[in-house]
Amino acid sequence: MADRDRDEPETVLLKGATMKTHIIIHAGNLLHNLRLFSRRARSPVMFVVKANAYGHGLRQVVEITRESPAVGHYAVDSLAEALTVRALQKRKPVLVLGWCDKAETEELVAKGFETVVPSEEHLRWLLSAAAKWKRKALVHVKIETGTNRLGLDPDKAVALLKNLDRGKAELRGVYSHFANIEDTTDPAFARRQLELYHAVLRHLGPASACRHFSSSASTLLFPETHFDMARIGISAYGYWPSRQTHALFLEKNKVALDLRPVLSWHSKVAQVKQIKKGAAIGYGLTYRTFARARIIVVPVGYYDGYDRKLSNASQVLVNGVKAPVRGRICMDMFMTDVSHIPGVRTGDPVTLLGGEGAERIDADMLAEWSGTIHYEILSRLNPLIPRIVK
Questions:
Q1: CATH of region 27-253
Q2: Which is the catalytic residue, given 15, 50, 142, 390?
Q3: From the candidates 132, 277, 283, 303, which is the catalytic residue?
Q4: Fewer CB under 10 Å: which end of the chain, C or N?
């Protein structure tokens, strides 16, 4: 029986809409994905909404999920994002995962946000702010286990935890992050990271802080990484972390998992043009027609987040049919060949991401065509494009 919340991201025609491009956020799909991961982790998840909620729209995503029992925490990158989340909901804690400068750490403490401790210097800033504001800093100690980004080496983390001034700091969490769990089917490096993490946990004692390590990929593949809470990012938005993760999941479980894409992206035909054989299309004359052709102009470009590397490489859906992009992507528009699609008119819908009839264009496809990853495709969508919740 179909899930009542299922909401396929098909093309949405907005009657009377004047927007040249818009993004649809499918609320039912987002809530469905979060429930899947909460059940898998056997606890509410830490929902990662940094980078404008992976391009989906921070305000819209928080408004959809703030009452969901599947979400226990929100995780962001910056103070600015934390303030936005707090303005939209005040019940669930907000953890700032990214680096903040000294002035920002003062505001983090003053406003009662949870924050990462990636270094001894950063902890000194937080303790100073705690003394100034006469309130405890709410800290999550970040252990460096192999990514070599923000984080304390395990021995320094142990020393810091043993000597933490509990009068000025409340230890809310101890965590790390996997470096090589998505793009491989060999978990050896991830297991070594897990060993380092366990070595630090042995110095904590029972139930002294929230333990979190798990990402989307590890939550799907390795239950031993779930600990007290799983941090879920890309898969909450309906995408597998990687092909390797998907393949390994199917090998381990023998069943599919119903991840549902949350975002679809739409535009419309701005102009239809008949051009001659041998005519050039776009800047640099990078494409010439082999026969008479009918092309359309789509009013979207790399400013909107439709990457220039998609030039002469990608496809869109026009009236439910795939049509190839021809010529270079411009700042605010690109051209597509619709010679094989009858009856295309100005104003007809164009789907850049999402489904239309039996066809689909997803972020994995755009990533492959442009030589990147779906994380980048989604997170670089221009935040000024209207997001409409459906």
A1: 3.20.20.10
A2: 50
A3: 283
A4: N
